[in-house]
Automatic annotation (TrEMBL):
<keyword id="KW-0489">Methyltransferase</keyword>
<dbReference type="InterPro" id="IPR025800">
    <property type="entry name" value="CaM-Lys-N-MeTrfase"/>
</dbReference>
<dbReference type="Pfam" id="PF10294">
    <property type="entry name" value="Methyltransf_16"/>
</dbReference>
<feature type="region of interest" description="Disordered">
    <location>
        <begin position="39"/>
        <end position="64"/>
    </location>
</feature>
<keyword id="KW-0963">Cytoplasm</keyword>
<feature type="region of interest" description="Disordered">
    <location>
        <begin position="1"/>
        <end position="24"/>
    </location>
</feature>
<feature type="compositionally biased region" description="Pro residues">
    <location>
        <begin position="1"/>
        <end position="12"/>
    </location>
</feature>
<dbReference type="GO" id="GO:0032259">
    <property type="term" value="P:methylation"/>
</dbReference>
<dbReference type="InterPro" id="IPR019410">
    <property type="entry name" value="Methyltransf_16"/>
</dbReference>
<dbReference type="GO" id="GO:0018025">
    <property type="term" value="F:calmodulin-lysine N-methyltransferase activity"/>
</dbReference>
<dbReference type="GO" id="GO:0005634">
    <property type="term" value="C:nucleus"/>
</dbReference>
<dbReference type="InterPro" id="IPR029063">
    <property type="entry name" value="SAM-dependent_MTases_sf"/>
</dbReference>
<dbReference type="GO" id="GO:0005737">
    <property type="term" value="C:cytoplasm"/>
</dbReference>
<keyword id="KW-0808">Transferase</keyword>
<keyword id="KW-0539">Nucleus</keyword>
<feature type="compositionally biased region" description="Low complexity">
    <location>
        <begin position="13"/>
        <end position="24"/>
    </location>
</feature>
<protein>
    <recommendedName>
        <fullName>Calmodulin-lysine N-methyltransferase</fullName>
        <ecNumber>2.1.1.60</ecNumber>
    </recommendedName>
</protein>
Length: 348
């Protein structure tokens, strides 16, 4: 051993570290187990929760960075699913990809803007990912993250867009990798955008998007809103090339294998004008965000990275970092706090 090398930890310390690692690994396997336990579609009600089930949830909360409330920027509450599916358009207008799952829940959002419009979104219940979802993911080269939950970055994106509503006036807007579509729907409900297209590469997710559009039609005023299956690796239809004034996305830069495809989609679909732009909100997640910015520049696009883009979001972030607010277990700046990336189709 080199004399400059750090000494090995004492056996007791090594054992403690190994035990901690084994414990964390065990908890992660529990998260995966809960996510993959398929529910029978014929089950009329959920089984009663046992004390072991509750302990299992408590244990996994110690290691999971996910939180159901995120930055808690938009007031919301859960309502019975039956209240969101009655009398909302006729079946002939519904997208063929719409899926109705026994694990669906309805969340009502009260948007923080003039008139306080409400949005009703249907989600899969958290931790209800099923094995068939994984099979479809592998078959069609899509990910299942859009089915898991409304991710914190999506809520931050929606909040940011609501507070910058003027930029969307009379614009044609596209949301990429939208999941259940909170940000796109918030833009449609709170701004005077001409058209909002809400897209995802997973047809199951797009089914939920279309359902959420149908539920909220009366909230959009004159803004046209539609859903679209948009796979970044696929060639795009000619009618949408260079047709969008603004593209928005949240937490879409994590998978490095999709960076090149995502950059090409932004470049091909964004209008070639000085006012067109893409707004991404993404955590650093190691070097994934910085690698994406490199790809953006290699594709001839200019970009700007902004850390403090909203005082409310920033103050919430500082509270989580300082442990003043314990409602987000294991909050980690690199994985949880979304930075704002502003992308332009022209080089400055």
């Amino acid at each position: 051993m080199d004399s400059a090398s750090p000494p090995s930890p004492p056996p007791a310390q090594a054992s403690a570290a190994e035990a901690s690692g084994a414990s964390n690994a065990s908890l992660r396997w529990r998260i995966l187990r809960r996510a993959l336990l398929a529910r029978s579609a014929s089950t009329s009600r959920a089984p009663e929760e046992t004390s072991n089930d509750q302990q299992d949830k408590n244990d996994t909360n110690k290691i999971s960075r996910k939180t159901s409330r995120g930055f808690d920027l938009i007031e919301c509450h859960m309502l019975p699913i039956s209240q969101s599916t009655k009398s909302h358009g006729d079946s002939s207008s519904r997208n063929e990809n719409i899926v109705e799952c026994h694990n669906d829940v309805r969340v009502c959002y009260k948007l923080p803007c003039e008139g306080s419009p409400k949005l009703n979104l249907v989600y899969r219940r958290e931790d209800s990912l099923e094995l068939n979802d994984i099979v479809a993911s592998n078959r069609y080269n899509i990910d299942t993250t859009g089915l898991v939950c409304c991710w914190p970055s999506e809520e931050v994106l929606a909040y940011y867009c609501i507070n910058h509503s003027d930029m969307f006036r009379s614009k044609k807007v596209l949301e990429l990798g939208s999941g259940y579509g909170l940000a796109g729907l918030a833009i449609a409900a709170s701004t005077d955008a001409d058209e909002v297209v809400i897209s995802d590469g997973n047809p199951q997710v797009v089914g939920y998007i279309q359902q959420n559009i149908s539920i909220n039609t009366e909230t959009f005023g004159q803004t046209k809103v539609k859903s679209m299956v948009l796979h970044w690796d696929a060639g795009q239809a000619s009618e949408i090339i260079s047709s969008f004034d603004i593209i928005v996305a949240s937490d879409c830069t994590f998978f490095k294998q999709f960076h090149q495809s995502l950059a090409r989609v932004v470049k091909s679909l964004l209008k070639h004008s000085e006012t067109s732009q893409a707004i991404f909100l993404s955590p650093k997640r190691g070097d994934s965000l910085s690698k994406f910015l490199e790809v953006i520049k290699k594709n001839g696009l200019s970009c700007e990275l902004i850390e403090k883009y909203d005082p409310t979001v920033w103050n919430m972030h500082k509270k989580y970092v300082s442990d003043d607010n314990r409602s987000w277990p294991n909050y980690n700046e690199e994985h949880c706090y979304p930075l704002l990336v502003r992308i332009n189709s022209h080089s400055k």
